[in-house]
Amino acid sequence: MKFGIIGAGMIAKFHARAIQAMTGSELVSVYARRADAAEPIAAEFGCRAYTDLDAFLADPKLEIVTIATPSGAHLEPALAAAAAGKHIIVEKPIEVTPERIDQMIDACRKAGVTLSGIFNRRFHPAVAAMKKAVDQGRFGRLSLCDAYVKWFRTQEYYDSGAWRGTWALDGGGALMNQSIHLIDQLLYLGGPVTSVCASTACLAHNNIEVEDTAVAILEFASGARGVIQGSTACWSSTGHPAEVHLCGDRGSVFLADEAFRVWDFSEPQPEDEEVRATLMQGAARGLGANDPSAINFTGHLRNFEDVVRAIEAGRAPSVSGEEARRAVALICAIYESARNGSVRVDLA
Question: For the chain, what is the mean pLDDT?
Answer without folding.
Answer: 95
